[in-house]
Amino acid sequence: MAAPAISGHATPPFRTEPLYVQKGLIIVAQQFASDNYAGICPEVWDVMQQANAGSVPAYGDDEWTNRASDSFRTLFGTQCEVFFAFNGTAANSLALASLCQSYNSVICSSFAHVETDECGAPEFFSNGSKLLVARTDHAKLFPEDIRALATCRSDIHYPKPKVVTITQPTETGEVYSLAEIRAIADTCRELGLRLHMDGARFANACAALGCTPAEMTWQAGVDVLCFGGTKNGMAVGEAILFFDPALAEGFDYRCKQAGQLASKMRFISAPWVGLLESGAWLRNGQHGNDSARALAERITAVPGLSLMFPAQANAVFLKAPETVLEGLRERGWRFYTFIGGGARFMFAWDAAPERVAQLAADIEALAA
Ligand SMILES: *Cc1c(COP(=O)(O)O)cnc(C)c1O
Q: Which of 166, 289, 306, 325 is spaced 20 to 30 Å from 313 by Cα?
């Protein structure tokens, strides 16, 4: 089967060998190329079945959507405004667009998903707000990166900086500490910038830091959060949280105009009830992190192998000789090498410990 071409991602020669065929279903071995290879977690599946009963009002005017929004407000301990979008590209792009005029700019890392993997959607939905990219060799943004881009020019010819976006955890699987987020937020306040957080794997960051969602966001100075549901165990869906309700003005129209208002909204809002009220959101994040740590520990013990980045969330970036990577491909493992040439492995709620152990054993055997 041909692998899908993914913009910016070097596509390896993927091979999918069916393990067995059962009742007409082709069962293939679990892969860790991405955390969105995973299916829907049981808590979400269960609540979707409940939401499927009967008929309810459309376009979000229903009890499931109210309850999901209230679950967010309870979890975050604040009266935030909550919106639902189909995916992270839409959530990020619309959130950033809502914070900008077309002549404004958004400061981000050169590793940021908004820069590398959203096909220009942030610029498109903001009618031209430019991304100002910090050209550093690390995925985290630091106050000095922000200050440099925000203060290097102040003339009319430069797109006026208005927002900073950080990814928590980063695209390289690293986690900003609360102190780092607060320092960024302080810099933003001082420079008159808003702070947006791309939390496609927000749950993994909460699990990694052992902090509350409030501590990592509004209490640290984050204005708007995109909270990822898809990689956390949903089929589809991200939530956009505005901690300052004034910033949410007109956002419902923005979602509708961008094709992000689900008519059968309950099927993208009820899943959040399943994740948040059961605590599955955090358990799922923790499981992904634990799986990554299990693999990382085995890798670091092998001479000749190393981690490209510290495995602080649910990602492992393996740096290994090309012979090892090719050997892994031959053994049927799928992975991307689009960040720095190493092999990326990502773990979701469903990562099977035996399969993680098998990957580790294959890596060890190839490196020996
Ligand atoms: C997966 C991901 C997103 C969302 O991607 P979509 O494919 O648009 O859902 C956003 N940011 C980061 C860092 C991601 O990894």
A: 325
